[in-house]
Each structure stands twice: as C-alpha cells, then as structure tokens.
Amino acid sequence: MQGETYYSVRMRASQNGSHEEGGKHISGGERLSTFGGLKDAVNALLDKGLSHSRGKPDFMQIQFEYVDDPIRAIHPLQIETNDANSAEDGKALATELLQQAGVPGDVIEKAFRRIDEFSEVRGAVLFDVRSGKRVDERKEKGVRVSRLDWPDADFREWAAKRGVPLNSRMKEALAVATKVCGHPAVIAELCWSDDPDYITGYVAGKKLGYQRITKMKEYGDESGCRVFFVDGSADLNDCISYLEKKPLFIQAGGEPWNCH
User: Fold this and answer.
1) pTM tops 0.85
2) Which site in 2, 147, 203, 222 is 20 to 30 Å from 214, CA atoms measured?
3) What is the pLDDT of residues 128-175, one digit of tens each?
4) In sequence order, what are the residues at sequence separation of 6 or more whose Cβ sits closer than 8 angstroms to the Cβ of residue 246?
5) What is the pLDDT of residue 211?
C-alpha cells in the first residue's frame, strides 16, 4: 500500500428524495480504492444501494475524492458471538457488555430510553458517559464514520484462519467498530442495523472487543441504532474529525487498534 494513491469512495441512497429533503435512508457504503480500482468500487456500492431490503431508492449519490493523508493499517478487534433468544435478551446482554466496557448503568438506561429517537439519525450519536446526554450536536445527520476499508484478500485470509463466514455485513461492521474504538475518547459502541432482514447487533470496546449479539430486534423492524459512548471531557472535535476524516485500512497484520 505504501506509495500508492488512494481515493475515498462513498455512497448514500434514499427513497422519496434526498436525505436533506426528508427522504427515507436506504443504504450507505464506504471504500478506499486505488485509481485503477475505482470502477469496481463504484459498481460494488451501486449494487449495494440498488439491492437493499429497505426498499428501492430514487436518489443515490456516489462520489470519490483523493486521500491526501497517510493511510494507517490497524488490526481488527477480537470477535466473539453471543446467542440471544429474544430482542429483550439481546438488549439485556448488551447492557451487561456496555457496563463491562466501562459505561455506567444509569447512562446506559438513559441511552436506551432515547433509542427510538436515535433510530431516525442517519449517522451515529455521541453519548457522554459523564452527563448522560447526547453531545455531537449533529441532529438528524449524526456522525458518519468514513474513509475506511478492509481489503477483500486480507479479510478472506483473516476469516479462514478463524473459521468465520465470509459475511460482508460482519466485515463492514467490524471494520467500523475497529476504527471507532481506536480513538481514546470512545468508551464503547452499541449498534444494530436498520435492515429489516438483519437482526444481529453488537457491542464493541477497547478491551471488550467486538461482541456480536444474535438478536437485537424482530424481523421486519426497520429501526436501527448506532451510539458511541464517549468521555465528554475529551476533545470531541478531534474524535469526530478522526471518525469522519482519518483514513484507515483494517488489516490482520496491522498496528494495534487502541490508539489514534
């Protein structure tokens, strides 16, 4: 990767107009690509946006831009799967894991009370573990984790060594969680998809790793959740800049992920 020129490729798709016009979010995606790989990256994101179970988009934006910062490669978080028989069990397990990661119980309770509200946010919500309040001030836009990718060949090799299925959803989610947990202000992440056909979610943290939970909602439910529990005394502008702009590859032989 050294010496090569890379581009950040991003896609977002919505129904009934653009996101800014109140359209329903359908899909989004991120890739880092060389110039020679741009066509494949764009086509992959186009296919993703057109084949999502949330519906058929009537608005899609795909854009790419030159990445002028050095791209670090960081090691993926350790992964573990936890079975849950119901959405209630899944949320109870998520609460236990968040506490293990260092999030106070009363803060978790406050965040869960606002989950329905947060499900309307397109990106992630930053929730302060000290005040128990949302602190990103991004309203319905939220914070979008960007400029990251996990090269397919490296992911396949990593998955084969661990007996992990070649699941593109898990690959993307683990890549995001790994980048998110790489910033010192982030204590933990809670996430489940807005895809009505995908009910698995996860909790991630620096020492906790990536903890998959097999059931976080019911099939057919289009509400999702992405909450980053952060230390509000840290430099949150630096945290948001890192999440949105710092280019990173996830790579099995990369650096430890607990520093940015």
Assistant:
1) yes
2) 147
3) 999 999 999 999 899 999 999 999 999 999 999 998 889 889 999 999
4) 69, 72, 147, 179, 260
5) 98
